[in-house]
Design a protein that fits this description.
alpha/beta; TIM Barrel; 2 domains; two-stranded antiparallel sheet; 12 helices; 11 strands; 15% strand; globular
Length: 295
């Protein structure tokens, strides 16, 4: 299981910030060549990111550069600069259709062959950030075995819709739900849009828990101070782990007495509840530093 709870953006045209990023411990580092880089700095960002990939890859977190979208004309040069043994995959903005995914996959096929990499090694994290992409979300999520996660881009989505962003996120409740369901149906993780109030850790935590409730498995960070909050919100808590173990124990005891369900703390425990508890323990065991499912 590839864990993608926290994905830290780092501006690709800032060498000092890319070097500092080696000291942080998100699940993935995302050197950004797209929105955080002005047009006149695109070529510099491409070169700078390529130079820093070996150092970033040595530190442990997955490296997933964000490249410019197909419609910019910059995608092929960006991919040529970063595809290689040091990256887990690439994050690509403004995916509209499954045909966009096919086009990007074809470019990756050629670049992997030139680099001597196995076909399909470079994973793909498309950004769902337009009305068209929401309408076609499941098609996109299921369009390629390269897809390792799908990301909600709330700023571009609300811009495309001609609506304002608000603090309560009510305007993105529908796309969040669509992405959560579509990603689950395609068996890929849904990754949430960044939270820009980086000096508000409690607001960030609440925001993470809200998206977790509709199926999101991780979130992009714009500041290193957000990493621990995001990791905590998308990880099972000690009380959740303990409760999951009690659920399984109670169900196994009921089964030993020939019963297909039981109760725990006044709530019914049946097969779906047990499966949810087992999935939670599996996730807990997969996280960095976990002692294993029996701990």
């Amino acid at each position: 299981m590839t864990v993608l709870r926290s994905l830290l953006f780092v501006p690709g045209n800032q060498p000092s910030m890319l070097e500092k990023a080696t000291g942080f411990t998100p699940d993935a580092i995302v050197p950004d060549m797209e929105d955080s880089v002005p047009m006149e700095e695109k070529a510099n960002a491409r070169k700078t990111v390529a130079e820093h990939l070996p150092g970033l890859a040595e530190r442990g977190p997955l490296v997933i550069p964000r490249v410019n979208s197909l419609d910019t004309g910059l995608l092929e040069e960006d991919l040529a600069a970063v595809v290689g043994p040091h990256i887990y995959g690439v994050s690509v903005g403004k995916i509209y259709t499954s045909e966009d995914v096919d086009a990007i996959s074809s470019i990756l096929d050629d670049l992997e062959a030139k680099a001597g990499l196995p076909n399909g090694q470079t994973r793909l994290l498309p950004w769902i950030e337009t009305a068209m992409a929401i309408v076609r979300c499941y098609e996109i999520c299921s369009s390629s075995p390269r897809i390792a996660g799908v990301s909600l881009g709330a700023e571009d989505y609300t811009n495309d819709m001609g609506i304002e962003r608000t603090k309560d996120d009510s305007e993105i409740a529908f796309p969040r739900s669509v992405i959560g369901v579509s990603a689950r149906a395609a068996d890929v993780p849904a990754l949430d849009t960044p939270f820009f109030a980086f000096r508000d850790p409690e607001g960030l935590r609440e925001n993470c828990l809200s998206s977790r409730k509709v199926g999101f498995k991780g979130k992009f960070a714009i500041h290193p101070a957000q990493i621990d909050v995001i990791n905590g919100a998308f990880s099972p808590s000690p009380s959740e782990i303990e409760h999951a173990k009690r659920v399984i124990d109670a169900f196994e005891e009921a089964q030993s007495r020939g019963r297909g369900s039981t109760s725990l703390d006044g709530h019914v425990v049946d097969v779906p509840v047990v499966k949810r508890a087992e999935a939670l323990l599996e996730l807990a065991a997969s996280l960095p530093g976990a002692a294993g499912p029996g701990a």
